[in-house]
Amino acid sequence: MTILRMDHVGVNVEDLDAAVAFFTELGMVQEDSASIEGPWVDRVNGIDGVRVDIAMLRTPDGHGRLELTKFRSPAATGGGAEPPNTRGLRSIMFAVDDVDDTVVRLRDHGGELVGEIAQYEDAYRLCYVRGPAGIIVALAEPLG
Asked: Which of 6, 57, 86, 90 has the most crowded CB, counting CB atoms within 10 A?
């Protein structure tokens, strides 16, 4: 058995429109959206009565995809602004051409720096931005 590819990362959000706006501001392109429900969704999730709205976004190069999901039923639980060393999904990293400009633009969509913008050797300028549903979006600007 061989993995063919990593298809996408899924993120549950409270406000689907705001999350789509955040990630499109970052430069992702919305591919599709749909409302999904039915017995197969219940079976896959192991939850009865699932009704979700999803939006699929892709990176401009077409290699990375993100599925944003808003649970209408049952209501989503948990989440929040956990520190970067919390177990589980740590971050989603994107290479950007200008980290300063990207942070400014994401602030207009609720993005908030976790720490500060820092430089790693002569290779990258990096930072973490807390995005929709409290997830950490890592940004890396290649240098040189």
From this structure: 57
